[in-house]
Amino acid sequence: MWPNGTSPGPCFRPTNITLEERRLIASPWFAASFCLVGLASNLLALSVLAGARQGSSHARSSFLTFLCGLVLTDFMGLLVTGVIVVSQHAILFDWHAVDPSCRLCQFMGVIMVFFGLCPLLLGAAMASERYLGITRPFSRPTVASQRRAWATVGLVWASALALGLLPLLGVGRYTVQYPGSWCFLTLGAQPGDVAFGLLFTLLGSFSVGLSFLLNTISVATLCHVYHGQEAAQQRPRDCEVEMMAQLMGIMVVASFCWMPLLVFIAQTVLRSPPAMSPTGQLSRATEQQLLIYLRVATWNQILDPWVYILFRRAVIRRLHPRLSARPRSLSLQPQLTQRRTVQ
Hints:
Rhopdopsin 7-helix transmembrane proteins, two-stranded antiparallel sheet, 2 strands, globular
């Protein structure tokens, strides 16, 4: 039943939760601490990135550009969503009274989809960049690599934003989710909800799968070159190991944080009979599962910067001193040139 007998806006679904239950679930101190830790971690990573960009090679400069875009995305995602969630947890406002036109809910739904997809898409873009840099070093102009990297980051942002705006155009819906502190796509059985949920899931899963495939090929190529090449040439081994270690770490974090939520969304919208009742109500167990998987997914924004901070060459050398003990450098170019000559 809705307050004062008013009809709900399009973003509201019937939920059975009391104010006391919301107080127990929605802790403003936990939400604020979570956001502060994430923001501080991303700021630290940005400061380390600013120092690392000075004097870096073309290939590494392009990779650091992608990392900068990823960290900026995670930082802004925590900042924007954190302001809304912490405010709601602090004062426990009634969303129906504060946002009867559902504009705030639609805005939060867009940014949740946007900041959720961007890390996955950027991870796939970084994997593609390293794959081309390792297996096709002659196919990319080095002068424009950094500019092209920023253009790719912008294209990823635009693609994620375009997908997030689809519910505003009638494909899918954003609704207030349990316990009433956030908005996200609707896990309903309507064609638009199913189409948008599957599109979000397939795009995210495809990005993770593409990252896994390209990173596997890149690592296999590096291992083959490092064990088979005798001459010391241009690119340092430590640099290649560092970039691939960071990229593999980002991929593993994204997989563990996001795949449970993506699989859950696909299973729920395809469930028969539908998980959502004709009135728009989900079972308490389904709502709680969605909340848990969403909280796991948000850890991605905190762990991403630490992957870069901990998987730097200085840290890798401390853990594996043999990497710094080798005076020679390695390059993929001579071996690839030799292959072309033989052919």
